[in-house]
Every structure is written in C-alpha cells, then in structure tokens.
Amino acid sequence: MKSPGLRAYAIGYLIFLYAPILLLPIFAFNDSKIIAFPLSGFTTQWFGEMWQDAQLWSALKNSMIISGTTAILATGLGIFAARASTRYTFPAKGGLIGLIMLPLVLPEMIVAMLLLVVFLAISVPLSIFTVILGHVLITTPFSVAILSSAFQSLDKSFEEAAYDLGEGPVSTFRLIILPLVMPGIISSLLICFTISLDEFIIAYFLSGSDTVLSAYIYGQFRFPAKVPAMLALGTILVLVSVMLLSIAEFFRRRGIAKTGGKDTGGFL
Q1: Residue 166 falls within a domain, yes or no?
Q2: Does the pLDDT value for residue 57 go beyond 70?
Q3: 186 vs 27, 58, 174, 191, 245, CA distance in Å?
Q4: Where would a tag sit more exposed on the chain, N or C end, judged by fewer CB atoms within 10 A?
Q5: Is residue 48 part of a domain?
Q6: pTM for this structure?
Q7: How confident is the model at residue 255 (pLDDT cuts 50, 70, 90)?
Q8: Which CATH number goes with the domain that contains 158?
C-alpha cells in the first residue's frame, strides 16, 4: 500500500540531501566572492584561479597516489577475503569476517585517533604511506561486500568442470573465476578509489606534512577569497564522483547479469 506521507518524506529527504550539492555549480559560476543570493552574474574566473593553484595540484597528485594505491590494495585483499568467505568453511569464520567488516560501523574519528596513536607509538612518521594504510583499512570492507556478491553469484559447476578437464586450483581461479568476477573487481576498484579520494578525517590525522586534496580544501575555507575557487573544484569533484560511481554500478550489474544472478540493489 502506497503512503503519501512516506513519499513526501522521501522527497523532502532527497531535497535536503542534494540541495547543497546543486548549489555548488550555481555559486561556482557566480561573479562574486560573496556566497549569497542574489547572484551577480556569470563567470568562469574561479575555475581559472583553481587551475593556476600550484598547491592544489600538489595536493591532487598526493591524493591520486593515495587513492590509486588504496584501491589496488583494498581490492586485492577483498578478493582473498570474499573468496574465502564464500567458498570455504573454517573455524571462527563469522568472527573473522566480522572483524574485517568492523570499520564500516566504527566512527572514522575513533579509527583515525587510534591509528595516529599506534603510528606514533611505533615511531612511524606520518606521510602518504600512513594515509594509505588508514584508507586501506576503511575501504577493504566495501571491497569485500562488493566482491562477496560477485563470488556468491558464481555457478560452482564451472569450477568443477575445469577440475574435471585437468586444471588445477590456481589455473582454474585465474582462467575461470577471475574473468567471471572481473566486473565486480572493476566496481570495487572504482568504489575504493572514490571513497579514498573523498575521505577527509583519516587523511587529516595521518598525512603529516604531505598535503592531500581533502585537507587542502578544508584549509582553504579559512580564507573567504579562496572559497569560490574551492566551490569550482567541488563542482568538478562531484561530477567525477558521480561518473565513477555510475561506471562502478554499470560493471556491478553487468557482472550479476553475466553470472545469471539476481540484482537486489546497488550503489545508485
């Protein structure tokens, strides 16, 4: 039974959630340093200022290194964990998988503070490397969730047929399993990359003197003259994030369709 009240709540929630994002491009093209209505006119000046900011490019380079490395490491770990959880039975399986997924429910502030304390205690200098470790910790559960769905939808008869034809476990995994779950792997890479690129709290705590993009944007909001250029950058980041998530969702659905599974919902 359809509820008008529930529908109104859903619409109101979506407006509340996405209205600030819709304001980004409006003020990014506004010919004024003051973020307020009425608008002063149309300009692309702020995109030009953003483009000429050398510190921004340095922060972006660091974030690309962190996000790319995080996506590869988290997806690699996710492949092993998802394969083990869906194919094998072993002692304390539920508890181990629960520990892997625990960062999904822990507050990032707590995780960041604990990692900071650990790194300082063992004398590990804060750098891009420590940010990568933190981001791998929080993105691996997302990779496991995505890849577990991909592995669960596999037909075991394909693997059994490969064994009957003389293939070993390694060659079967490489030649049969991996190609079938490749859409899920690509989806995991894109999701982990997007999460790492957008993540702020862990990057802020663990980056040390290496500035990352999210922390750089946060710092620039202390200067009113820099705000319009940051809104221009935010507009570009929103478009890139939506594009990556759309591609990830495409590959997720393609992987489910390829293995004949049932789609129970996705990212978008």
Answers
A1: yes
A2: yes
A3: 34, 27, 16, 9, 11
A4: N
A5: no
A6: 0.78
A7: low
A8: 1.10.3720.10
